[in-house]
């Protein structure tokens, strides 16, 4: 059974890569994605014909490959990316799930969504402009979300005569900045998305560059998820009690395994109550199994009749997260309305939603020099800052460094359900900078 688990893990690690693109306005993210899809022959003929026709209607002789990802009408009309565009494509070496995120400051929250499940982030920089504030913002978000691999794509090299010194200067500045945030791996690649240089095929104009193309790096970057090493976590979504003549005593707890592995016979704790019991059965796809792992959806049966409801967390008895009502975290504020000290909110953690109050906002990050602005009083849209939240009921949170899934949460406006902030328990740039390697990666996605 262990061999089966490892085989499934190895297959997933070598054949699928989730990555996101980010960068400032007009740096060419959508064009890069379009070039990747076009040159890797990952678009259908009718899609290309539609792009060619739309480009002609806009007075362009050559097809505008950015239209392959800018799918909303407003995006096409304004020539900007507004929403996260997900694209699925494959080569002979790997399958990809790509999130093309907006560059405008007011849509930084979309980058949080796109990068929350990414194993790699491609940050684009216009070679003429170099590293700008939005570049630093996106690097900071990637670091906070603990994206293990970051690619710096220095785009529009054709507009600076493919000059090596321009690329080297930008790569040195960005690498130093990202490393100070704790980004574990940074790869810089000079490209021209419009002309196709170093995107899929090597550039004939930059013989001074001996590294991989963007696609080659995406196909070969090591992505590993050791499911057996992750802290096992099972948020309960639903309690199943058929109460039928066939199953008069059946009681199961259904949900999706957030991380790790569960086995029949294993001693577990139910949080936040702390009661301990033993797994007597695991049902998956209508059949009983002895073992299950993330991200499978299963029903777990327990030996004891414990009061369990939606929002409770099942974890190994000897490896349970701490239970607390005082949450200290770093948040990316994503709402137009500010987040203020004393504000009443809802906090959504896995399947559990409880009332809470913002007790303190100790600091706000200044992106220029990574200094902390003390006691700002509130956070506004796109701010990154530290918060202390007091919850009405205890939560079982992991540190975000240990689990991207069970260490993340959302702050929600109780009045209208608006998402206010995306939070990472215990996460900070100081902690990230001390980490020499990326954390174990669990899938976690925030939907705004």
List the SSEs and their pairings.
Layout: H1 2-15, E1 16-23, H2 29-39, H3 45-57, H4 73-78, E2 85-90, E3 95-100, H5 108-115, E4 120-126, H6 133-144, E5 149-155, H7 164-181, E6 185-190, H8 214-220, E7 234-235, E8 238-240, E9 252-256, E10 261-263, E11 267-271, E12 275-284, E13 287-289, E14 291-293, E15 297-302, E16 313-316, E17 322-333, E18 339-340, E19 344-349, E20 352-366, E21 371-374, E22 378-379, E23 384-397, E24 408-412, E25 419-425, H9 429-434
Parallel strand pairs: 1-3, 1-4, 4-5, 5-6
Antiparallel strand pairs: 2-3, 7-16, 8-9, 9-15, 10-14, 11-12, 11-16, 12-13, 12-15, 17-23, 17-25, 18-22, 19-20, 19-24, 20-21, 20-23, 24-25
Report on this structure:
The chain has 448 residues and is of the alpha+beta class. The chain folds into three domains: 2-220, P-loop containing nucleotide triphosphate hydrolases (Rossmann fold, 3-Layer(aba) Sandwich), CATH 3.40.50.300; 232-316, Beta Barrel (Elongation Factor Tu (Ef-tu), domain 3); 322-434, Elongation Factor Tu (Ef-tu), domain 3 (Beta Barrel), CATH 2.40.30.10. 21% of the residues lie in helices and 34% in strands. The protein contains nine helices and 25 strands. The chain has helices at residues 2-15, 29-39, 45-57, 73-78, 108-115, 133-144, 164-181, 214-220, 429-434, and strands spanning 16-23, 85-90, 95-100, 120-126, 149-155, 185-190, 234-235, 238-240, 252-256, 261-263, 267-271, 275-284, 287-289, 291-293, 297-302, 313-316, 322-333, 339-340, 344-349, 352-366, 371-374, 378-379, 384-397, 408-412, 419-425. The strands form five sheets. Strands 7, 8, 9, 11, 12, 13, 15 and 16 form an eight-stranded antiparallel beta sheet that branches. It has a six-stranded mixed beta sheet with strand order 2-3-1-4-5-6, sandwiched between helices. Strands 17-23-20-19-24-25 form a six-stranded antiparallel β-barrel. Strand 12 and strand 13 (287-289) form a beta hairpin. Helix 5 (108-115) packs parallel to helix 6 and helix 6 packs across helix 7. The longest helix is centred in the middle third of the chain and has 18 residues, at 164-181. The two termini are 38 Å apart. The model is unreliable at 6-14, 71-82 and 431-448 (pLDDT under 50).
């Amino acid at each position: 059974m262990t061999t089966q688990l490892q085989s499934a893990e190895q297959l997933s690690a070598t054949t699928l890569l989730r990555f996101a693109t980010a960068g400032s306005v007009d740096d060419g993210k959508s064009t890069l994605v379009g070039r990747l899809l076009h040159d890797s022959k990952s678009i259908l003929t009718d899609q290309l014909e539609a792009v060619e026709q739309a480009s002609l209607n806009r007075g362009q002789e050559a097809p505008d490959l950015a239209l392959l990802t800018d799918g909303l009408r407003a995006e096409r009309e304004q020539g900007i990316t507004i929403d996260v565009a997900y694209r699925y494509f494959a080569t002979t070496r790997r399958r990809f799930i790509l999130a093309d995120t907006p560059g405008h400051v007011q849509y930084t929250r979309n980058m949080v969504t796109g990068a929350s499940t990414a194993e790699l982030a491609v940050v684009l920089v216009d070679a003429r402009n170099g590293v700008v504030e939005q570049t630093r913002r996106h690097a900071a978000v990637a670091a906070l979300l603990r994206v293990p691999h970051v690619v710096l794509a220095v785009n529009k090299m054709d507009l600076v005569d493919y000059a090596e010194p321009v690329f080297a200067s930008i790569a040195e500045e960005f690498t130093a900045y990202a490393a100070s945030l704790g980004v574990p791996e940074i790869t810089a690649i000079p490209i021209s998305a419009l002309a196709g240089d170093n995107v899929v095929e090597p550039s004939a104009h930059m013989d001074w560059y001996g590294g991989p193309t963007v696609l080659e790096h995406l196909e070969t970057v090591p992505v590993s998820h050791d499911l057996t090493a992750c802290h096992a976590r099972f948020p309960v979504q639903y309690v199943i009690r058929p109460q039928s003549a066939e199953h008069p005593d059946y009681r199961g707890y259904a949900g999706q395994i957030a991380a790790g592995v569960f086995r029949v016979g294993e001693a577990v704790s139910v949080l936040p109550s702390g009661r301990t019991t033993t797994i007597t059965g695991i049902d998956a796809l209508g059949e009983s199994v002895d073992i299950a792992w993330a991200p499978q959806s299963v029903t777990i049966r327990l030996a004891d009749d414990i009061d369990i409801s939606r929002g409770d967390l099942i974890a190994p008895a000897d490896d349970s997260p701490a239970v607390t009502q005082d949450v200290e975290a770093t948040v990316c504020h994503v709402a137009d309305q500010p987040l203020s000290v004393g504000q009443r909110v809802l906090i959504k953690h896995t399947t559990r939603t409880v009332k809470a109050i913002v007790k303190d906002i100790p600091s706000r990050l200044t992106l220029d020099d990574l200094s902390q602005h003390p006691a700002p009083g509130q956070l506004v849209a796109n701010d990154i800052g530290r918060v202390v939240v007091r919850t009405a009921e205890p939560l079982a949170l992991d540190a975000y460094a240990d689990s991207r899934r069970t260490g993340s949460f959302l702050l929600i406006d109780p009045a209208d359900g608006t998402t206010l902030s995306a939070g990472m328990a215990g996460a900070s740039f100081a902690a990230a900078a001390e980490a020499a390697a990326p954390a174990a990666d669990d899938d976690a996605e925030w939907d705004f």
